[in-house]
Amino acid sequence: MVRKVSTPSSITFEESDKNGTLMRNIFENLEEIPDKETTPEQTSTKKYKSSSRDSIKKPDEEIDLHGKTRDEAIKIVQKFVFDCYQKNLRSALIITGKGHNSAKKGPVLKREVKLWLERNGETYITDFYEAPPRFGGSGAIWLNFR
Questions:
Q1: Half-sphere exposure at residue 123, Cβ-oriented, CA atoms within 13 angstroms
Q2: Can you spell out the DSSP letters for 55-121?
Q3: What are phi and psi of 11, to 5 degrees?
Q4: Within 10 A of 28 (CB to CB), how many other CB atoms are there?
Q5: How far apart are CA 66 and CA 76, in angstroms?
Q6: Residue 94 needs a FRET pair 20 to 30 A away by CA distance; which of 22, 41, 51, 87 works?
């Protein structure tokens, strides 16, 4: 069994008026004492680049066509696109759903809405495409207006 043997420290502290004056000068000249409870993120002024996820803004307007028939959906889309264009919006989202309840036919509303946009949307929109994943992905269509 090994036993630790401590040796007395050779450091000595001397109390003097000089040390007291020095400490007072240090603390009197401090404007603010840092809070040791503050995390580096709270004190940092460095700007970090945001992720690409943050750079995609929410659409200015959106509609959800879940549960609508083909004819209802097309009427709603016509009015929606025209209204968004009239309001000078930059972008909009049409949620069509992924077509999981359409059996073998696939996503009926998505197909019909895209067809309508291709045929009639040129006056109002510059382009349209599958929405980014956080806004519905393949179950939604993103529109950019003129």
A1: 10
A2: HSPPPSEEEE-TT--HHHHHHHHHHHHHHHHHTT-SEEEEE----TTSGGG--HHHHHHHHHHHHH-
A3: -85, 135
A4: 7
A5: 12
A6: 51
- The bridge status of strand 91-95 relative to strand 125-130 is unpaired
Structure tokens at 10: 């050779």
User: How far is C-alpha 19 from the geometric centre of its chain's CA atoms?
Assistant: 54
Instruction: Please report the domains of the chain, with CATH numbers, ordered by start residue.
Output: 58-145 (3.30.1370.110)
Burial (Cβ within 10 Å: 0-12, 13-18, ≥19) of residue 29: exposed
Task: Answer whether 99's CB lies under 8 Å from 110's CB.
Answer: yes
Cβ atoms of residues 73 and 108 within 8 Å: no
